[in-house]
Write a structure and sequence with these properties.
Helix content: 25-40%
Distance between the termini: 99 Å
Strand content: 5-15%
Number of helices: 20
Radius of gyration: 32 Å
Shape: elongated
Strand order of the largest sheet: 2-8-9-6-4-3
CATH superfamily of the largest domain: Transferase(Phosphotransferase) domain 1
CATH class of the largest domain: Mainly Alpha
Largest sheet: 6 strands, mixed
CATH architecture of the largest domain: Orthogonal Bundle
CATH topology of the largest domain: Transferase(Phosphotransferase), domain 1
Structural class: alpha+beta
């Protein structure tokens, strides 16, 4: 055999071995999102697609072919490594034509166009001779060009729309448990697939929150004008800088969905109030009314900022959130390296579902239009337990900032119930609120219709009124309750404004801190702590505080006004699902140790030495010969 033929044969064999090696490395680099990844969503990171091609490998690939020269090999390494990977992936074997098809091809302006920079290529892939390869190239190219998430900023933003063929850069995914109506997931972004405002790719992988909204859930006008409205939203976000507002990083459309990428919080307020997170048993020992009031005051300030202090291009604007609920308040335990007892509470910013058409202009909203018309068109199908009466009425109405204040009043009521009784009391309060009224269909709202008017449900009224205690240590509870009632008003114009609510909350937080800095009433101590007699009323020598239940008036004898003395130390359960003592300030009393048997809720007892598992709070305050104040609970 002639030396040239032998050399050519050896080069072909080396090329075939190289292609097998590269194909195997690309297969190993393929990213799949979770154990049950969706077909067609696999991708290969840019670094992996590029790193398989060293100058030596390109030299081996081109040996004996038309582009076997140093200059063309360098151009291939610099501009065509992704293209090479795609061709290897689809098992293309016309490597001698690589120079003519790719290296020499130019567009109408005499610029090279079949290179990495111009991926994905147009639907015309006639440069590939085999029909099968054309189709495979069109599909496979998206494996090598996953979306690079780009944080919105003055100088950078992601493109508005991606076709369904594009792959999201996620290597792991979990549906967030609090996500019910929305498709909300926790996603792990691959390294170097997120570009910050500074234009630099984040070098490590990290978790984000991703919300998917089907286009079918959005009006046709918004869907049609999405790109222009998204530009308006980006401008709008520039004026949303507030410590208690969580800004999304970027929004875009992907196939049939709108996608919102946001920082991942530790949990939301719903999980916080219900104790549904892993380290609740550790964290709850630090909870104080002082910290809770401070956190919810931050949310009130964020509302006041949205309602009155937005400034866009020199104009003072006003805006309504219109979807205030515990799931839309996120919590971060640590801020700037500082661990906070109850975390920082953050109001989620606006996603594309809340851009509303102006009644005066059916076209896309400019940012000024969006902010100036703070009484927005009625939200269809967006009712929550925290919705105001005007937003759930059958007749079309306007809803806006006043709706936010009703919702905030409901949130504040829940926070107050949590401060008094923890997750169990929040659960009991919610069940009482949602219970069926005689002759009425059950609803989840805080109000009901009575003679054509919206009134607070009796169960809600009884619960909240039970928290008004004529005791100096508990005066803050009554003051917060007054603030709640100032917002749960039927006529929107008569509700407290965000500024008024925030100022009153700040005043309570400041003036009552002498008492509110003690741990929440329902928290058992981790260790005995000496009582400060100057701050607290006298506790009986047996360490027990009197609790009054309505049933005890008729079923228990021997106690004035139906007072029931509950015995035994509290357990470290999250709320009143305990048989025993509810301390006025558990932080400041001694308790005996030892397990306490659980008592069923419906186990009625007549002995004053044992107690009930307590539930719904009722109307309160009574005095007796014991000269003390009491909290009364209905089982």
């Amino acid at each position: 055999m002639a030396p040239l033929a032998l050399w050519s044969r050896r080069s072909k064999k080396d090329r075939e071995e190289l292609l097998k090696t590269v194909r195997r490395e690309l297969q190993d680099a393929l990213k799949r999102c979770g154990p049950k990844h969706e077909a067609g969503q696999e991708f290969i990171c840019e670094d992996d697609a590029l790193s398989v091609w060293t100058p030596q490998r390109i030299e081996t690939l081109s040996k004996g072919l038309s582009w076997d020269e140093a200059k063309l090999q360098y151009i291939t390494w610099d501009k065509f490594r992704k293209v090479l990977s795609i061709l290897v992936w689809i098992r293309w074997d016309d490597w001698d034509d690589f120079k003519k098809i790719f290296l020499e091809h130019v567009d109408s302006h005499r610029r090279p166009d079949y290179n990495d920079q111009n991926l994905p290529f147009a639907w015309d892939t006639s440069f590939l001779h085999a029909h099968r390869l054309r189709s495979e190239f069109l599909n496979a190219q998206y494996i090598f060009i996953p979306i690079i998430l780009t944080e919105d900023g003055p100088n950078h933003h992601s493109q508005n729309e991606y076709g369904y063929q594009y792959r999201m850069p996620f290597i792991d995914s979990h549906k967030l448990k609090e996500s019910t109506g929305d498709n909300l997931t926790r996603e792990l972004v691959a390294a170097k697939h997120f570009r910050g405002k500074n234009g630099v790719l984040k070098p490590e992988q990290f978790w984000v929150s991703t919300k998917h909204i089907e286009r079918g859930c959005i009006s046709e006008t918004i869907s049609r004008d999405f790109c222009r409205q998204q530009d308006a939203l980006r401008v709008f976000k520039q004026c949303l800088e507030h410590d208690n507002i969580m800004l999304s990083w970027t929004t875009f459309s992907h196939g049939a969905n709108f996608v919102i990428i946001s920082p991942l919080a530790d949990l939301n307020l719903h999980d916080f109030l219900t104790g549904k997170y892993e380290d609740f048993d550790v964290r709850h020992h630090r909870f104080t009314p002082f910290d809770l009031l401070g956190a919810i005051s931050g949310v009130a300030d964020a509302l006041e900022f949205l309602h009155l202090r937005l400034n866009l291009r020199g104009r003072t604007m006003a805006c309504a959130h219109v979807d205030l609920k515990p799931e839309n308040i996120l919590i971060q335990w640590e801020v700037n390296g500082e661990r906070l007892a109850v975390g920082r509470w953050l109001l989620q910013d606006f996603d594309i579902a809340r851009i509303k058409e102006s009644s005066e202009d059916p076209g896309p909203l400019a940012p000024a239009d969006f902010l100036a018309h703070f009484s927005l068109a009625k939200l269809q199908g967006n009712s929550t337990p925290f919705s105001a009466p005007e937003s759930t009425a059958n007749a079309p109405q306007k809803v806006g900032r006043e709706r936010d204040m009703w919702s905030f009043g409901c949130l504040l009521a829940l926070v107050l119930v949590f401060a008094v009784g923890g997750p169990s009391l929040v659960d009991s309060f919610t069940k009482s609120k949602d219970s069926t009224q005689p002759g009425r269909a059950p609803t989840e709202y805080f109000y009901m219709a009575e003679d054509g008017k919206a009134v607070l449900k009796p169960g809600v009224m009884n619960w909240l009124n039970s928290l008004r205690i004529e005791l100096s240590e508990c005066r803050w509870m009554g003051r917060v309750l007054d603030l709640v009632y100032g917002m749960l008003v039927e006529i929107p114009a008569n509700r407290l404004s965000a500024r008024q609510a925030q100022e009153k909350l700040q005043l309570i937080w400041h003036e009552e801190q002498r008492f509110t800095k003690n741990r929440c009433l329902w928290i058992s101590p981790e260790a005995p702590i000496a009582m400060d007699p100057a701050l607290h009323p006298r506790v009986p020598d047996n360490g027990l505080i009197s609790i009054c239940t309505p049933e005890s008036r008729s079923t228990i004898s021997g106690h004035d006004q139906g007072l029931l003395i509950l015995g035994g130390p509290p357990q470290s359960k999250p709320a009143f699902e305990i048989e025993g003592l509810i301390p006025v300030n558990s932080e400041d009393h001694h308790y005996s140790r030892g397990p306490i048997p659980s008592t069923p809720i419906d186990d009625r007892r007549s002995s004053s030495s044992t107690g009930y598992s307590m539930g719904t709070a009722q109307s309160i305050y009574s005095t007796s010969d014991l000269k003390s104040s009491f909290i009364r609970f209905t089982v």
